[in-house]
Structure prediction request, 65 residues.
Amino acid sequence: MGNIIMSHQKLKELVKKKLEQTGVLEEHAEIVAEVLVHADLRGVHSHVRFKWVLIFEQEIRVQEI
Prediction:
């Protein structure tokens, strides 16, 4: 899979949505999504990138991002 470019806001929305779909409360999903995206913007990619690939695999295939 090549690079995917999207706004930080779109990425945050996708992370929040997937967390909520797994049962995370909306308020908590918002906080976690904010922290993960903020870390990525600061260059702290580590294990989060791999998790994002798994989380967004289906959305990336069917959505035009």
Q: What stands out?
A: The chain has one domain: 8-62. The domain at 8-62 is CATH 1.10.1530 (Hypothetical Oxidoreductase Yiak; Chain: A, domain 1). The CA atoms of residues 4 and 65 lie 8 Å apart. The helical segments are 8-21, 26-41, 48-62.
